[in-house]
């Protein structure tokens, strides 16, 4: 009987699974033809499709698990469909094999294969095929779609071009290789590349930590490190990847007379401690530092400043036991200390960010003279130190003759692209005539940038307003890459101030989507005040709330007026809310809407409010600072300007009953290193008045005709956690919260 395999190829943005299964397992799926399915794929959206050709009992268990994963996949925005392959279908995804189950995962950059197997024979065939060629990362997970499974797939995105990833959910297969712990997920590293004799079995190293993205990354890094390294320097000064990963070092002390025997011993120890510690062979004869004559092992912990231990161990088992017991103690202490920052957290964030950076390179390919590069600070520590890199990941933009500009925004592709494109122009642009100012305000001057910032800011100043101009220029420098700013300070500036009813000094905000220009006086406004004015002006009046932009609007410290919709909102609803905004009835609220198709976790939010899913569209008000009451607009009333205004007045007067009071549980990061908002605030506070050397109208950040580096690795972005909103008290819901967002986070 032909063995089955599960192959995943990343070439686009959809996930396509070719499989054979019982029809009863997928009756709930929508059925499409291959042509229809591919026509429905949307850019930027993930899709999981079952390509079916015939029935086979071998895939039934696997498909049942996939079927159970449909709901959580949809929660994360991944659509699921069944594709029926007809006989005349020539698509490569409709395979010819009757018993071959394949899955194709399409990603724009990485072409890689992850094989799903069900028998020991399958594993042995893969192992034999890769001997002398490549190593294998073999994992067992209890079911598809579990956190452990996602962690493995994320690792496959990063390391899939280097190692063959193999996956199974079969307990019998796990037991057949000697592991009876079927309750937990496991990952083995098969060292097949060095096996040249096909009759020999590949060495196997079991990862003993839980299967998380960070742990897998650390484990694979240790597999990549040299098995044994010879050193002749002070053990306290030696640095290896193991120390960077938080693992100890074991030095086997040798001398010339016993070198060969000591090296064999060190290699045997290295295999036993692979993934747990780094092993080095220390040549006593070449060492200037004194080592106690009786010591044959030196143990160095990963913590800085801890002195090395000189040991006398008579056998290998005693050495292994000593190392494992000390590593175990360190793990327990780290788990018990919730405030301890993981030294590897930056690596995990860097892995998650890598895909965004690669996607950015694809978008800019052939359209920009900017050279995108990446530096692994584990390999180039001196370079990173010179560039003052203390946290990871960090994005910096360099231009000849100017100071580097650090990016402190969200680590997403679109945010990075916006930063790069907006950094092409000056900060602020020096406008030299009234005609040029009008072109700037209309969007014509930089029309290719309007899609990245729908608001253009123009500062108007009299020639003698030196201090005000310096403050505005300072604010513009700070906002470089985040806003389009310009300055006009010619003798005829009154022409513009009179036309737009602006009292100098002033800001003109040109909102291109709305086609209007408004003025804001700047009298007695310092740089920080101007930055805040511009930052608030860049926010949308009635935004669609997503997981990515929610923190930005929560920072406004206002109650949320949320319109939940299953798709695009009715234009009449939007018109009614915008009219209330224009008439300033919603100044104390943040009006917004949430599209459940784009942000499926909104369903969980509504279910927590109503127990069962209410009919849509639905309007609710939630205060994010105290109390926890949630109010719903009456479902039997039309969403009109008049009805909304009347309802809001009743809320203010305390005449409406809340629908629920949510538990006042704080929403904190799982570790301090995950408190990204605090990090961004800290970074901003450290550079409140950063200045660039000079501003010009250049349209390219770096004149460089080098070809962009195409990275062949990518990872799946971590799944979005359930949205949470804090709660509020009816008596003060119109008052702004006194505490900052990061210190007053509660469940949504």
UniProtKB/TrEMBL annotation:
Residues covered by the TXNDC16 third thioredoxin-like domain = 227-317
- The annotated region (Disordered) lies at 686-714
Q: Which SUPFAM superfamilies match?
A: Thioredoxin-like
Return the InterPro entries for the record: Thioredoxin-like_sf, Thioredoxin_domain, TXNDC16, TXNDC16_2nd, TXNDC16_3rd
Mention any Pfam family matching this sequence.
Thioredoxin
Q: Which residues form the TXNDC16 second thioredoxin-like domain?
A: 108-226
Q: Where is the Thioredoxin domain?
A: 360-421
User: Domain of life here?
Assistant: Eukaryota
Q: Compositionally biased, Basic and acidic residues: which spans?
A: 689-714
| Protein name from the UniProt record | Thioredoxin domain-containing protein 16 isoform X13
- What organism does this protein naturally occur in? Vulpes vulpes
């Amino acid at each position: 009987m032909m063995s089955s395999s599960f192959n995943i190829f990343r070439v686009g943005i959809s996930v396509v699974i070719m499989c054979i299964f019982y029809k009863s397992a997928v009756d709930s799926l929508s059925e499409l033809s291959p042509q229809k399915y591919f026509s429905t794929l949307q850019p930027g959206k993930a899709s999981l499709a079952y390509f079916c050709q015939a029935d086979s009992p071998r895939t039934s268990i696997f498909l049942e698990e996939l079927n159970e994963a449909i709901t959580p996949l949809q929660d994360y925005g991944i659509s699921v469909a069944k594709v029926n392959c007809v006989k005349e279908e020539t698509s490569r995804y409709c395979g010819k094999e009757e018993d071959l189950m394949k899955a194709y995962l399409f990603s724009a950059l990485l072409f890689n294969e992850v094989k799903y197997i069900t028998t020991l024979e399958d594993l042995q065939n893969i192992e034999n095929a890769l001997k002398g060629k490549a190593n294998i990362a073999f994992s067992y997970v209890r079911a598809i779609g579990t956190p452990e499974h996602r962690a493995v797939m994320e690792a496959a995105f990063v390391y899939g071009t280097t190692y063959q990833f193999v996956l199974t959910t079969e307990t019998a297969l796990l037991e057949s290789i000697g592991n009876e712990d079927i309750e937990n997920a496991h990952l083995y590293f098969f060292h097949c590349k060095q096996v040249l004799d096909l009759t020999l079995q590949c060495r196997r190293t079991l990862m003993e930590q839980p299967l998380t993205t960070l742990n897998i990354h650390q484990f694979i890094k240790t597999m990549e490190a040299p098995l044994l390294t010879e050193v002749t320097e002070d053990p306290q000064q030696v640095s290896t990847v193991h120390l960077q990963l938080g693992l100890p070092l074991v030095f086997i002390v040798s001398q010339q007379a016993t070198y060969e025997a000591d090296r064999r011993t060190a290699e045997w120890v290295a295999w036993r401690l692979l993934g747990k510690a780094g092993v080095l062979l220390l040549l006593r004869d070449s060492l200037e530092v004194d080592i106690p004559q009786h010591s044959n092992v030196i143990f160095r912990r990963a913590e800085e400043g801890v002195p090395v231990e000189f040991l006398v161990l008579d056998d290998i088992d005693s050495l292994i036991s000593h190392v494992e017991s000390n590593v175990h103690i360190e793990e327990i202490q780290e788990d018990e200390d919730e405030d301890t920052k993981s030294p590897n957290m930056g690596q995990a964030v860097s892995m998650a960010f890598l895909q965004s950076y690669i996607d950015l390179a694809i978008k800019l390919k052939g359209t920009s003279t900017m050279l995108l590069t990446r530096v692994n600070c584990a390999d180039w520590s001196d370079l990173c130190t010179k560039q003052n890199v203390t946290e990871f990941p960090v994005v910096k933009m360099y231009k000849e003759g100017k100071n580097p500009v650090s990016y402190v925004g969200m680590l997403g592709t679109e945010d990075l692209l916006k930063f790069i494109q907006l950094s092409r122009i000056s900060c602020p642009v020096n406008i030299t005539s009234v005609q040029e100012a009008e072109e700037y305000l209309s969007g014509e001057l930089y029309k290719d940038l309007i899609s990245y910032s729908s608001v253009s800011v123009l500062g108007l100043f009299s020639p003698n307003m030196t201090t005000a101009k310096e403050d505005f220029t300072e604010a513009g420098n700070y906002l470089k890459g985040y806003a389009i700013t310009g300055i006009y300070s010619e003798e005829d500036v009154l022409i513009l101030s009179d036309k737009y009813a602006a009292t100098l000094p002033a800001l003109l905000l040109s909102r291109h989507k709305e086609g209007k220009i408004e003025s804001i006086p700047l009298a007695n406004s310092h740089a920080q005040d101007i930055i805040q004015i511009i930052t608030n002006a860049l926010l949308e009046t009635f935004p669609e709330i997503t997981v990515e932009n929610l923190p930005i609007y929560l920072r406004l410290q206002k109650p949320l007026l949320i319109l939940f919709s299953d798709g695009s909102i009715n234009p009449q609803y939007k018109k009614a809310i915008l009219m209330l905004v224009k008439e300033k009835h919603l100044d104390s609220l943040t009006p917004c809407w949430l599209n459940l198709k784009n942000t499926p976790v909104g369903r969980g939010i509504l279910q927590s409010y109503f127990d069962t899913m209410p009919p849509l569209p639905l309007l609710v008000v939630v205060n994010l600072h105290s109390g926890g009451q949630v109010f719903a607009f009456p479902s039997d009333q039309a969403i009109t300007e008049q009805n909304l205004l009347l309802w809001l007045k009743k809320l203010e007067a305390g005449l409406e009953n809340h629908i629920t009071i949510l538990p006042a549980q704080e929403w904190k990061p799982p570790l301090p290193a995950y408190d990204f908002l605090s990090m961004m605030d800290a970074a901003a506070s450290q550079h409140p008045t950063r200045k660039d050397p000079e501003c010009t109208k250049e349209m390219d950040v770096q004149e460089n005709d080098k070809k962009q580096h195409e990275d062949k690795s990518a990872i799946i972005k971590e799944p979005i956690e359930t949205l949470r909103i804090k709660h509020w008290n009816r008596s003060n819901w119109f008052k702004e919260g006194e505490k900052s967002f990061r210190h007053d986070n509660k469940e949504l």
